[in-house]
Amino acid sequence: MKLEPITALNWRAAGALRLAPGQLGLVAEYEPVAFVILARSYIGYENGVWHPLVAVADEMVGVLALVDEGSTWALRSFMIDARFQGRGYGRAVVLAAIDYVRARGGAALRLTVHPTNTAAIRLYESLGFAPAEPRGTDLGMTLALHAT
Question: Residue 134: its pLDDT value, please?
């Protein structure tokens, strides 16, 4: 799995990715999620340096933002397109995100997850994420990153 910046060459394809019905409230308030990520990046939403990214296997399968907040980074607005869900891409993307943050000196990766998104919670727990401070109604989770 490769993580690549959303650029002038791929933003339309990133914007074409869609969630399965009923999932929008788990990820973002609006679709296309890639455009939400780009807008938040542009305006410096909630501080930090935003890295708007696409996840590419044989083709583009998802979008996410990694936000550099200093030693801790945040995983934001992560989604796998409905056509590619259930194939292990979510795990591959999170592992690639961990590598991305670690390579840039991050000491921890945090995220929030909707409490009804049990599949995502199981995924994050299986990768070592632990409960952290909630954010609104979402569950907070954090993974301490150790040098490899």
Answer: 86
Tally of CA atoms within 13 A in the half-sphere of 74 that contains its CB: 18
Q: Cα(101)–Cα(68) distance, rounded to whole angstroms? A: 8
Report the distance separating Cα 102 and Cα 120, nearest Å: 21
| Mean pLDDT rounded to a whole number for the chain | 94
Least confident of 28-32, 79-83, 128-132: 28-32
Measure the N-to-C terminal CA separation of the chain; round to a whole number of Å.
19
List the domains of the chain with CATH numbers. Answer: 2-106 (3.40.630.30)
SS3 53: strand
Helix (H, G, I), strand (E, B) or coil at 63: strand
pLDDT tier at 12 (50, 70, 90 boundaries)?
very high
Residue 125 DSSP symbol = H
